[in-house]
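Students often ask why we bother encoding 3D structure as a string. The short answer is that it lets us treat folding as translation between two languages. Here is a chain of 196 residues written in the first language.
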Amino acid sequence: MSLSRVWIIMAASAVLAIGINCFLAPYRVLDGGMIGIGLICKYLWGVKAGFTILLLSVPIFALAWFYDRDYFYNSVYGMLISSFFIDLLQPLQFKFLACVRLDPLSSSIVGGILVGWGIGMMLRHETSTGGTDLLAQLLASVFRINVGVLIFMIDAMVISLGGWLISKETLLLSLITITAVGLTTSLCTWKISENA
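And here it is in the second language, the structure alphabet:
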């Protein structure tokens, strides 16, 4: 892996982590996938979200190692670095909230845009945060199901679980967030689709 790619993954992970810690976490808002599961664990039990994402991703990466090494290599760096940054930048939340306070709706949108930008930049450089997106890619290749449909289904289950366990407000704000994440990720990866 080139040094420039490492720097881009680090910058994208930092932006993603700022979106989570400064905009989503203050209002107990979720993203989809493994990040959402990590945030549910953080909100319910006070555990570190990044470390939880890392632990819960181990079985998925083990599957990728045995069934498709390309998926493994293209995602492991993004997952490790983004999980590290999510926990490293968690203290920023309190400093940020002391200076800036957005309403829950605006915070959910801005957080979604930042998370989507971080994920989109990783995808542009052929890496990802892995997690449930990686699981969806593996399942899609085995069962011949559209990967986008699988990712949507997994995200919907995570958001629904969070809404049930945390609150209806969490569910509604999280739906707004995953919409912002999806749109921003699509915009960041638009040129890849055009050139494909």
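Translate back mentally: The CA atoms of residues 40 and 151 lie 18 Å apart. Keep this in mind for the problem set.
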